[in-house]
Specification:
Chain A is built from 17 helices and 12 strands. Chain A has 490 residues and is α+β, with helices and mostly antiparallel strands. The mean pLDDT of chain A is 86. Classes of the chains: A alpha+beta (490), B alpha+beta (473). Chains A and B meet through strand 4, strand 5, helix 4, helix 12 and helix 13 of A and strand 1, helix 2, strand 7, helix 3 and helix 4 of B.
């Protein structure tokens, strides 16, 4: 550009800025005094807090039926609602040899095709506007419903119908499959879901069962036959692996009376419970190649995915949770401070842990402008390294926040049942849910540091991005080689 | 735990849901304020929330519930974005950020530290169009900590507004705005719904608007709006009532109002002159369609009828959007709801387009459903379940102390009082199918609505996208 052209461009930019500047009236001056309220000695310091109480979760009453099925109830009289969940452990994400999405399809058939004694299809029955929801995770299949207390007599028998095979109908399978495929397509149509799967492929390999969408893909689900779904159901839907959970305005005795006629008749084929091995992380000497999905927008979304211990690992798992909470989740945590200490690069870094029985992944996620991608990533990675050497003395704060958060989130019956469902699905005894504060009391800085050294490592990390390639490739490439993918349409 | 294979979402404004009251007192230990009973329905205890006003004008709501050993504390100010003077977009939001940056008795970051020490499970500030709200959930035994902090925020923050903190927070607000920039479609839709000069109209470039603000602006906004006579304090949870009252009086009683007063914003309701269309083109991973009609305000007699109609469209009966669109492969998700705020009320249907489906086909399906909603026999069949679902949702919201606190604050702001649950539920019980059909015919007309489409265009690389708005006959 010539100097004359440059001048013209600057003048044009200035005129544009002036034209676009917000037109507004000046605001009046402040009035004095700025602080009309008198001070007082009690305002000098915040009240000194008391320690968080030991028992923040309610009592869970448990009973095992003769066939091995379990019923667990949290009695909360007066709430007016009852949340219900039925978990089939081992009926979650299918083993590697089965087609991806088999467990999800089976769960859909169980909740849709099961038929009540009066002939109605379970899927057609709605109570208070809701029908039985099916959901499949890594550790089990989950069927849930929340109803008013008055509808409990209908809701419990309805829910336990999912444990029967009465509705598995060969002649209806084709239409059931077609309907299920629509949902499979919708489930994968999100940037977050695809980013996560991309990360797991990088960590465990494209062929690993964890690298597949838990609902499968249209391509794989389309190939599943009725016999395969039925065989999966017969193999894994067993009494000893089944837990019915209720929380709300009911009692253990009441739930048992309503559930036992069907749940008590569920067969138990015997044999060992299905437990998966901890996934092996593909080896890497340092940062592995960054996997990026093309985004035509203006911002870059990034995820750092770290494999971690499973719930079977007890205290180490909770130490990992606490470390991730220290790193992210609140505006003043370590990662946020590291990234924004000299200038603001991101609004905030969020951290979550996706847990299962044998393993977990921590996900740190944030959005930045393309020009800040490199520095932000470097700052987060540096903080990750620093945690292996740090005194981690904010443990007490995080511990009490964690326990209060648990109490707050489980004030709702539905959330409490979801928590207990994950507990039972991961084969943890009910007592350990009630005694979480004792588990947390075992945590100390030495355990945290040991856990940080074992798990917060660059060579175990996968970075994924949803970003505009032209603006971010160079920044990402300074850290590690970059592999670009297209966003997958269903 | 996994992927939920279901669709559909509810969007009626939380504060204005009213459902049937099928509740009666059961426990001898309870001291209920009121009760009503219907056969074969749930019996629960209903306690009244205490509402009173301090001498300085602060509204206080204390709702004791010992079910969980936690307390939610919330303070709501009439200090939302609709209170911003013209040309000062994002000022309310930026001022909210500034209230966390220190005060006479707390350094910058001190508030977070004290809440963390108190074991706060969650705490945050949120700016909406109508309010700026601050909340925390703490173990019950530490309820005094958020009370002290909120009194500190109200009375001793302004004098510590500082330039370096302001520059940092302005940059953070900018990042927050950019992170939200994925809602290009929503911003264009909102600017179409609210004409120039309307207090709810968003800025065309909120990031630039934030960049243009100065410390003195935030200080003015704070002094003007953060005052006891423009605020409501709510506590929900396990506390001892006399002690809570004493703490509130101690911390908030002496707080003085600055000079002047706050006048809430006002605006004429938006109407549609004919068939309005909005087309937004930008890079997007999924197309969208929204159909919006003007709806009555919350105080109108036919508002509950429309609320029930929204429930039916969002449910799984004959009027189900999900069945009409998702199960037929036209959409990945759909929702219907009433969006009612202080200065506006709209009935809205939203659809996320399935890849390969036609937006025209989606729009036709919506039209057919709306036609069916004007048939009494169809509405009659869906109504019982819709009512039951709303009761269940009302009970569900009641379990969450923070949601309950928010509702109390909104009741005080809108109605001047806390609404007991039975009053909430009564209006819906009285709605008949004929009333719903009449409301549908009156408001959900084909000739007076806005249809907005978001279409993927890979050539459009700007953050704002390209939009065109037309008004038809």
């Amino acid at each position: 550009m010539t100097s004359g052209a440059r001048e013209l461009a600057l003048i044009a930019a200035l005129l544009t800025a002036i034209a676009c500047a917000p037109r507004r009236e000046p605001l009046p001056p402040l009035t004095e005094p700025l602080t009309p309220t008198p001070d007082a000695p009690f305002r000098a310091r915040a009240p000194e807090p008391e320690p968080v109480p030991e028992r923040l979760l309610p009592e869970i009453r448990v009973e095992v039926l003769p066939n091995g099925a379990t019923i667990a109830v949290v009695e909360r009289p007066g709430s007016g609602l009852v949340a219900l969940s039925l978990i089939i452990r081992g009926a979650g994400r299918e083993p590697a040899g089965d087609p991806a999405g088999l467990s999800a399809l089976t769960a859909t058939l169980a909740s849709k095709r099961a038929r009540l004694t009066d002939g109605r299809l379970l899927a057609d029955v709605r109570i208070d506007g809701r029908r039985v929801m099916s959901e499949v995770g890594d550790d089990g299949a989950l069927f849930s419903l929340e109803v008013r207390r008055s509808a409990l007599n209908e809701a419990v028998p309805l829910l336990v119908q999912t444990t029967t095979d009465i509705g598995f109908e060969r002649k209806a399978f084709a239409s059931d499959l077609a309907e299920h495929l629509d949902r499979v397509a919708a489930a994968s149509h999100s940037a977050g879901a695809q980013l996560r799967q991309t990360a797991l492929e990088g960590l465990y390999g494209a062929d690993h069962r964890l690298s597949r969408f838990v609902v499968g893909s249209v391509k794989t689900v389309r190939t599943i036959s009725f016999d395969q779904a039925k065989a999966f159901r017969d193999r894994y839907y067993r009494a000893s692996e089944t837990v019915l959970i209720a929380a709300g305005d009911t009692t253990l005795a009441e739930v048992r009376t309503l559930a036992e006629p069907v749940l008590g008749g569920m067969p138990d084929a015997g044999g060992a419970s299905r437990i998966e091995a901890r996934p092996r992380v593909l080896p890497s000497k340092d940062l592995r190649p960054i996997r990026a999905i093309t985004n035509g927008g203006a911002m870059a979304s990034l995820m750092l995915v770290l494999p971690g211990p499973g719930m079977v690992d007890g205290v180490e798992f909770w130490a990992f949770q606490v470390l991730i909470a220290m790193l992210a989740e609140q505006p003043r945590t370590r990662a946020n401070a590291a990234v924004n200490h000299d200038q603001v690069r991101t609004y905030g870094i969020g951290g979550t842990v996706h847990a299962r029985y044998e393993s977990s992944e921590a996900i740190l996620a944030f959005s930045v402008e393309p020009e800040d991608v490199g520095e932000t990533l470097e700052a987060v990675l540096a903080e990750l390294d620093a945690m292996q050497r740090s005194s981690l003395d904010e443990l007490d704060l995080v511990r009490s926040q964690f326990l209060t958060g648990l109490a707050a989130s489980t004030s709702r019956n539905e959330a409490l049942v979801a928590l207990l469902a994950s507990w039972f699905a991961r084969r943890l005894p009910a007592e350990s849910a009630m005694a979480l504060s004792e588990t947390f009391a075992e945590l100390d800085p030495a355990i945290l540091m040991r856990t940080a050294r074992a798990w917060l490592r660059r060579d175990r990390l996968q970075i994924v991005a949803f970003a505009p390639p032209r603006e971010t490739h160079a920044e990402l490439h300074e850290l590690a080689p970059v592999e670009w993918f297209r966003f997958q349409l269903p | 735990m996994g992927v939920v294979v279901a669709v559909g979402r509810w969007r009626v404004s939380l504060a204005f849901v009213i459902a049937l009251s099928w509740l009666q007192v059961a426990s001898a230990e309870a001291k209920p304020s009121e009760s009503s009973a219907e056969p074969n329905h749930v019996t629960i205890v209903q306690r009244a929330a205490l509402h009173y006003r301090l001498d300085n004008g602060l509204d206080v709501v204390l709702d004791r519930d010992p079910a969980q050993p936690i307390v939610a504390v919330l303070v709501s100010y009439g200090a939302g974005s609709s209170y911003e003077p013209a040309g000062y977009h994002e000022l309310a939001h930026l001022t909210e950020h500034m209230t966390f940056t220190g005060s006479r008795h707390l350094p910058n970051g001190g508030m977070y530290r004290e809440l963390a020490r108190a074991g706060a499970a969650t705490f945050n500030g949120v700016t909406t169009r109508d309010t700026a709200e601050y909340y925390a959930i703490v173990p019950a035994r530490n309820a005094a900590v958020p009370l002290w902090l909120e009194s500190e925020r109200m009375a001793f923050t302004l004098e510590r507004f500082a330039s370096d903190a302001f520059a940092f927070e302005r940059a953070r607000v900018r990042k927050e705005i950019l992170q939200r920039a994925g809602s290009t479609f929503e911003r264009h839709l909102q600017r179409t719904l609210y004409p120039e000069g309307h207090p709810y109209r968003p800025s065309g470039d909120p990031a630039e608007a934030a960049d243009s603000l100065e410390l003195s602006h935030a200080a003015w906004f704070f002094q003007k709006h953060y005052r006891p006579d423009n605020a409501t304090l709510v506590m929900v949870g396990d506390f001892v009532l006399p002690r809570a009252r004493a703490a509130v009086e101690r911390y908030f009683g002496p707080i003085r109002n600055p000079q002047g007063h706050v006048s809430p914003p006002s605006a004429a309701p938006r109407t549609f002159r004919g068939r309005e269309t909005l087309l937004v083109e930008s890079w997007t991973i999924q197309g969208r369609l929204a159909v919006v009609w003007a709806a009555p305000p919350r105080s109108a007699g036919d508002w509950p009828a429309l609320a029930l109609l929204a429930e039916m469209l969002d449910g799984e009966g004959e009027l189900s959007l999900s069945r009409a669109l998702v199960e037929r492969g036209l959409a990945d998700a759909s929702s219907a709801g009433l969006e009612t705020e202080s200065l506006s009320s709209f009935f809205r249907i939203d659809v996320s387009q399935r890849d390969g489906a036609s937006l025209d086909a989606i729009e036709r399906s919506i039209g057919a459903l709306v036609q069916r909603s004007q048939l009494v026999d169809v509405v009659s069949r869906d109504l019982p379940e819709a009512r039951a679902a709303m009761v269940r949702r009302e009970l569900f919201r009641n379990e969450d102390y923070l949601l309950r606190a928010r509702r109390h604050a909104e009741d005080v702001r809108v109605f001047g009082k806390v609404l007991p649950r039975s009053e909430r539920l009564r209006a819906l019980r009285e709605v008949t199918p004929v009333q719903i059909v009449e409301a549908a015919r009156r408001y959900l007309t084909a000739g007076r609505r806005l249809t907005a489409r978001h279409v993927h265009d890979p050539e459009v690389r700007t953050r704002a996208g390209v939009a065109s708005h037309e008004v038809g006959p």
